[in-house]
């Protein structure tokens, strides 16, 4: 619900506040290819947007400011290094207008959790400022700007389930029949640094450590079309799982809990440390979450569904 200040009638010449909701992402398939000269890795991934949301409210202002509440507030910088601020500035540059807005971020997505929380906030800021400033960019143009901010940002503008290539920034929707999948997210106490997890995979490869490498996403895409969670369970794969486990061995306990809590599968999301468990339906998901909470192998859990839409004005 809008608070008193938001309910006040917008002053003359001032746009009404815009509220945008943006989901977290998990990776159903993540294959890490070669390290490129630009420092990024060639990726082939299947992104999946799930119903854990951050929210940004954008109001007219005389400067660009950011405030935040919720998960990780007080830990995230609110200056130029914040991806939401960078997104607003970049949109202003691209459209030749001053970057004035008061942004307020309400966070539920954990920071450095492998769920693209920071990228989600950037996507939300883009969509929010586009609406506040009435710049009216096409989704494609927004996606181009999004790609300048981070590899996952274009997907979070798009949402749904999508194939990501390049460094992850080239996204195309996966045409799967309308079906809702049920997941349990298990959050860890501390985050993992994405660059450090990628550096660890490079180190392992340089040292000839033979982690299994994900193949093509074909099996997973076929499983999505079959709408059968038992089949999907067998196709979830993430090349960043081994390096994340190497950096944070205690995550093995969380992943191993999949059997005990009767989940169909467990996998690390992106660069971790969040673990994702697949459930057959919503009741099963609730039971898995309750078992995980009792077992003490994670900080907390969330039951979510996917796919859901990308960053949208609400
Ligand atoms: O694109 P983004 O800024 O989110 O990436 C964060 C970091 O993750 C990069 O600086 C890089 O170290 C690593 N990364 C990578 N290959 C990718 C995506 C990210 O090595 N395809």
TrEMBL record:
<dbReference type="InterPro" id="IPR013750">
    <property type="entry name" value="GHMP_kinase_C_dom"/>
</dbReference>
<dbReference type="InterPro" id="IPR004424">
    <property type="entry name" value="IspE"/>
</dbReference>
<protein>
    <recommendedName>
        <fullName>4-diphosphocytidyl-2-C-methyl-D-erythritol kinase</fullName>
        <ecNumber>2.7.1.148</ecNumber>
    </recommendedName>
</protein>
<dbReference type="GO" id="GO:0005524">
    <property type="term" value="F:ATP binding"/>
</dbReference>
<comment type="pathway">
    <text>Isoprenoid biosynthesis; isopentenyl diphosphate biosynthesis via DXP pathway; isopentenyl diphosphate from 1-deoxy-D-xylulose 5-phosphate: step 3/6.</text>
</comment>
<dbReference type="InterPro" id="IPR006204">
    <property type="entry name" value="GHMP_kinase_N_dom"/>
</dbReference>
<feature type="active site">
    <location>
        <position position="25"/>
    </location>
</feature>
<comment type="similarity">
    <text>Belongs to the GHMP kinase family. IspE subfamily.</text>
</comment>
<dbReference type="InterPro" id="IPR036554">
    <property type="entry name" value="GHMP_kinase_C_sf"/>
</dbReference>
<keyword id="KW-0067">ATP-binding</keyword>
<dbReference type="GO" id="GO:0016114">
    <property type="term" value="P:terpenoid biosynthetic process"/>
</dbReference>
<keyword id="KW-0808">Transferase</keyword>
<dbReference type="GO" id="GO:0050515">
    <property type="term" value="F:4-(cytidine 5'-diphospho)-2-C-methyl-D-erythritol kinase activity"/>
</dbReference>
<keyword id="KW-0414">Isoprene biosynthesis</keyword>
<feature type="domain" description="GHMP kinase C-terminal">
    <location>
        <begin position="221"/>
        <end position="296"/>
    </location>
</feature>
<dbReference type="Pfam" id="PF00288">
    <property type="entry name" value="GHMP_kinases_N"/>
</dbReference>
<feature type="binding site">
    <location>
        <begin position="110"/>
        <end position="120"/>
    </location>
    <ligand>
        <name>ATP</name>
    </ligand>
</feature>
<keyword id="KW-0547">Nucleotide-binding</keyword>
<keyword id="KW-0418">Kinase</keyword>
<dbReference type="InterPro" id="IPR014721">
    <property type="entry name" value="Ribsml_uS5_D2-typ_fold_subgr"/>
</dbReference>
<comment type="function">
    <text>Catalyzes the phosphorylation of the position 2 hydroxy group of 4-diphosphocytidyl-2C-methyl-D-erythritol.</text>
</comment>
<dbReference type="InterPro" id="IPR020568">
    <property type="entry name" value="Ribosomal_Su5_D2-typ_SF"/>
</dbReference>
<dbReference type="Pfam" id="PF08544">
    <property type="entry name" value="GHMP_kinases_C"/>
</dbReference>
<feature type="active site">
    <location>
        <position position="152"/>
    </location>
</feature>
<feature type="domain" description="GHMP kinase N-terminal">
    <location>
        <begin position="82"/>
        <end position="160"/>
    </location>
</feature>
<dbReference type="GO" id="GO:0019288">
    <property type="term" value="P:isopentenyl diphosphate biosynthetic process, methylerythritol 4-phosphate pathway"/>
</dbReference>
């Amino acid at each position: 619900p809008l608070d008193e200040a938001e309910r006040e009638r917008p002053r003359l010449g001032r746009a009404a506040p815009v509220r945008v909701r943006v989901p977290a992402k998990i990776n159903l398939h993540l294959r890490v290819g070669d390290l490129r000269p630009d420092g990024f890795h060639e990726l082939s991934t299947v992104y999946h947007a799930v119903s854990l949301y951050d929210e940004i409210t954008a109001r007219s202002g005389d400067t660009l400011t950011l405030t935040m509440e919720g998960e990780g507030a007080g830990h995230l910088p609110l200056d130029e290094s914040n991806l939401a601020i960078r997104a607003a500035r970049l949109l202003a540059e691209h459209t030749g207008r001053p970057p004035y807005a008061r942004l307020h971020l309400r966070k539920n997505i954990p920071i450095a959790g492998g769920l693209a929380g920071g990228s989600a906030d950037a996507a939300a800021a883009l969509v929010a400022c586009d609406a506040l400033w009435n710049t009216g960019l096409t989704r494609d143009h927004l996606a181009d700007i999004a790609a300048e901010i981070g590899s996952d940002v274009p997907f979070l503008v798009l949402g749904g389930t999508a194939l990501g290539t390049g460094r992850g920034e080239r996204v195309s929707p996966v045409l799967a029949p309308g079906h809702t999948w049920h997941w349990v997210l298990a959050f860890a106490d501390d985050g993992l640094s994405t660059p450090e997890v990628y550096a660890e995979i490079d180190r392992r490869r340089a040292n000839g450590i033979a982690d299994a490498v994900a193949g093509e996403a074909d099996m997973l895409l076929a499983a999505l079309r079959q709408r059968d969670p038992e089949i999907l369970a067998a196709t979830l794969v993430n090349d960043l799982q081994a390096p994340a486990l190497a950096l944070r061995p205690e995550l093995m306990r969380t992943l191993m809990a999949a059997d005990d809590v009767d989940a169909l599968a467990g996998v690390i999301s992106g660069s971790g440390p969040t673990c994702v468990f697949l459930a057959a339906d919503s009741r099963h998901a609730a039971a898995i979450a309750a078992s995980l909470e009792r077992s003490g192998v994670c900080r907390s859990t969330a039951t979510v569904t996917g796919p859901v839409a990308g960053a949208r004005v609400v």
